[in-house]
Amino acid sequence: MNESVHAVQTAPAKPAIEPFDAARARGDFPILSRRVHGRPLVFLDSAASAQKPGAVIDAVRHCYEAEYANVHRGIYWLSERATEAFEGVRKTVAQFINAAEEREIVFVRGTTEAINLVAHSFGRYSLEAGDEIVISAMEHHSNIVPWQILRDEMGVKLIIAPIDDDGELMMEAFAKLLGPRTKLVAITHVSNALGSIVDVREIVRLAHEVGARVLIDGAQAVPHLGVDVQELDCDFYAFSGHKLYGPNAIGVLYAKAELLETMPPYQGGGDMILSVTFDKTEYNAIPYKFEAGTPNIAGTIGLGAAIDYVSALGLPGIAAHEQDLLHYATARLKEIDGLRLIGTARDKASVLSFTLADVHAHDIGTVLDREGIAVRTGHHCALPVMDRFGVPATVRASLGLYNTRDDVDALIDGLGKVREIFG
């Protein structure tokens, strides 16, 4: 008797993540070969500003040495070359975050300026007294103060979504804060002070259900997570080049084209115009309408090189490496008596904030510096977070693609020195 054979349907296997060679990548960063106070540099402050690989340094140098001129304004060879390189980065950024169009990419000085642009262009002209802006209790000052300015000047209401004792956004409480007067949600993707990763996809879904727009502060996310703005369906996404192994004073505001079309200019002058008379000014097309004045040409080209560098290494491999380091470092820090981790969310990026007994964070940082270890100490531009956890400051060790377990071990040994000195 013939029997029918039914093939078992299985999901396609996920592509394997290539092993990440941090030691090899480390060699791409010239500054990491330095010695500090006679000791090898252990750099654990990438969340503040990451170090730069040779590819980025070379790209900036080449711009100034071989192809520098102002962009968009010249018909001579150098200007055309500089413009081609500059606009090529816009395409690179659009592909990196999967924007639908290159004109949705606005170059700014960094995340702070991007948020201020949205506040003072979209916010001033789309909101009115009584409208509500929802942010979270874990925001960086850059995603608090611009909205407070609108609150004080326009009468909009600022609503704060709570976080729990682990530093996680309380999603049920967040959802209950949304209503017909909610016009904007401005939320971090990854907390700079806690490392908590926020479920921004769900945030966007909930916000859009009540007709609110969503701005995501992605400064701490882009170096560690793959970001797809179309998948997220966010209205605005902001990030900085200097945290992505690129130059400082360059960043990106992504915004949906239909929003940029309706928003008025943030600043006036330079390339943001088509024509000017004393009676009337006609503004340029997007994104140039928001890029007044001579841009950071070399910085933009350096940002493109940084994105190329990170993309070549592969974000999945980088993320897996950093998660391994995070788990290793967390386990080792928990072994230290008197150490309290601030921020223990289940889903975290590679940020470790902590206090140690009664020793002030600045004293800890000073002792670690003498051991060649660079960490950040203070409130990390997140004073409301410090208030939430009842501490004046924390020590923050933030890990990047170039860090290794040896760096973590050096941190642990350095904290041993702190214990020896302060008891």
Secondary-structure blueprint of this entry?
Elements lengths: L21 H5 L8 E2 L2 E2 L1 E2 L10 H13 L10 H21 L7 E4 L2 H16 L5 E5 L8 H10 L2 E5 L9 H7 L4 E7 L11 H10 L3 E5 L11 H4 L3 E5 L10 E5 L1 H6 L10 E4 L4 E3 L13 H17 L1 H20 L4 E4 L8 E6 L4 H10 L2 E2 L1 E3 L4 H7 L4 E5 L6 H18 L1
Parallel strand pairs: 3-15, 5-6, 5-7, 7-8, 8-9
Antiparallel strand pairs: 1-2, 4-10, 9-10, 11-12, 13-14, 14-17, 16-17
Helix pairs in contact: 2-10, 3-10, 4-5, 11-14, 12-14
Structural account:
The structure is a single chain. By secondary structure, the chain is an alpha/beta fold. It folds into 2 domains: 22-48 and 314-422, Aspartate Aminotransferase, domain 1, CATH 3.90.1150; 56-312, 3-Layer(aba) Sandwich (Aspartate Aminotransferase, domain 2). It has 14 helices and 17 strands. Helix 2 (54-66) packs antiparallel against helix 10, helix 11 (315-334) packs parallel to helix 14 and helix 12 (361-370) packs across helix 14 (405-422). The longest helix has 21 residues, at 77-97. The N and C termini lie far apart (83 Å). Residues 1-15 have low confidence and may be disordered.
What is the oligomeric state here?
single chain
- In CATH, the homologous superfamily of the largest domain goes by the name Type I PLP-dependent aspartate aminotransferase-like (Major domain)
- Report the CATH topology name of the largest domain: Aspartate Aminotransferase, domain 2
Give the overall average pLDDT: 95
Helix tally equals 14
User: What is the CATH architecture annotation of the largest domain?
Assistant: 3-Layer(aba) Sandwich
- Give, in spatial order, the strands making up the sheet with the most strands: 4-10-9-8-7-5-6
